[in-house]
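Shape is hard to put into words, and the shape of a protein is harder than most. The fold becomes a row of whole numbers, each drawn from a learned catalogue of backbone shapes. The outcome of that step, for a single protein, is printed below.
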Amino acid sequence: MRFSIGSLCLIGTAAFMFLAVPAYANEASRNKEIQERFAKCDTDRDGKLTMVEAKGCMPRIYDHFSRIDEQGRGYVTVAQIQAMADR
């Protein structure tokens, strides 16, 4: 069976879209989970998670806190946690 260049491009595009959509869905669900857990752990609701807040609630964040808090501010934000998760 022979395929034309056009049909091969169409097959390639469909395969790419099929593979790309689940990756986006996983990233979106991961970010939603991070936001939900962050909201539960941010006990003073200031949009910042301290080491004390992370300790019992987000142990992986607690374990890598200094790596996420690159500026040494003493807190991390949802955006910083998501950026670390993207790496």
